[in-house]
Amino acid sequence: MLILSIESSCDETAVALVRDGREVLTDAISSQVELHREYGGVVPEIASRKHIEHIYALADQALRDAKCSRADLDAIAVTYAPGLIGALLVGVNFAKAAALAMDIPLIPVHHIRGHIAANYIAYPDLQPPFLALVVSGGHTLLVDVRDYTHMAILGGTRDDAAGECFDKVARVLHMPYPGGAALDRVAQGGDASQYALPRPKLSGNPLDMSFSGLKTAAINLLHNMEQKGESVNIPNFCASFSEAVGDMLIPRTMHALEQSGYRTLSVAGGVAANSRIRALLQANCAQLGVRLCIPPLSLCGDNAAMIGAQGYYEYLAGSIADQSLNAFATKSMEGESV
User: Which of 112, 161, 236, 292 sits at 20 to 30 Å (Cα–Cα) from 225?
Assistant: First the structure.
């Protein structure tokens, strides 16, 4: 089954062709990083306008690169939630029009489910059930992937996402957008023991996390040092902050593995590209004898291939939308797709 998939939830316009949920024929991406770098973050209105400018050409490019025609397509899959509402609407409306014009099924895909499905591309033998750690700019979740389309959230952040904290701290350090990637590069040469940063503990669900206190403490420390005229060892500070985030994520992930009984952990989302987080996960999974699946860097960020991968399984489960499909800025990944 050949699916044309669309991703436009934030600042990446992406169109891919994916066969049977595992084989990527092409994944065309138009990045807006340089455009938004001037503002230090994504400007929603600009992102939406750029999606409109690029999406049609990208779809044609994807077909050309895969040496396919419109007649070869069996379905259209599109990210419909969550994300920037204006950006999502561009992709959803394009997909609806294309599905109507070609008289093929329209498949709605939740963005977070798509991130998890990136591992199906990277690991063709991977099958549910397994535990997924989703760490991105907007989400930090521990997910019980019971089946391709049946998932349950076991725990997650109660406030800020891990990726958002990386970006905000990087901005205070005057690092270029996207800040999380810049902070990770600098941290690789640092001493993680120099700066003492908190590791908040929560009551209630032991798998829940909180990153707002850590973010605030890190930013306050930087501001206080600046006011006192003290210099900051940037590599050491970045390493210390990365270590603190890892100390929030890793123990809870290992606890979730033990609680679920799963022997496979998949990691998804942009923060999965962080070198320190990857190293900590590898070490802990090796100690527990757990299989660790982390997609390559090209599949950690937003892309359309992951939407096509999940779209295939949504189609098999009967998740087909009609022309009333709408976009949602926020929506749980649990339950039915639409």
Answer: 161
CATH 3.30.420.40 segments of the chain: 2-116+302-316, 127-299
Per-residue pLDDT band at 201 (split at 50, 70, 90): confident
Q: Cβ(338)–Cβ(91) under 8 Å?
A: no
Give the helix, strand, coil percentages of the chain, each rounded to 5: 45, 20, 35
Superfamily of domain 127-299: ATPase, nucleotide binding domain (3.30.420.40)
Neighbour order of strands in the sheet with 106-110: 23-31, 12-19, 2-7, 75-81, 106-110
pLDDT digits (tens, 9 = 90+) for 252-309: 999 999 999 999 999 999 888 888 899 999 999 999 999 999 999 889 889 999 999 9
* Spatial distance between the Cα atoms of 250 and 9, rounded to a whole number of angstroms: 28
Strand runs (DSSP E) across the chain, as ranges? 2-7, 12-19, 23-31, 75-81, 106-110, 130-135, 140-145, 151-156, 264-268, 291-293
Query: Are the C-beta atoms of 266 and 126 separated by less than 8 Å?
Result: yes
Distance, in Å, from the CA atom of 272 to the CA atom of 254, rounded to the nearest integer, reads: 16
Quick one: what percent of the chain has pLDDT higher than 90? 80
Q: Pull the structure tokens for residue 59.
A: 């779809």
Integer Cα distance of 11 and 47 in angstroms = 5
The mean pLDDT value for 86-101 works out to: 97
Separation between Cα atoms, residue 321 and residue 107, nearest integer Å: 6
Distance CA(262)–CA(146), nearest Å, equals 10
Determine contact, residues 75/104, Cβ cutoff 8 Å: yes
Quote the crossing angle between the two packed helices 234-260 and 275-288, to the nearest 10°.
30
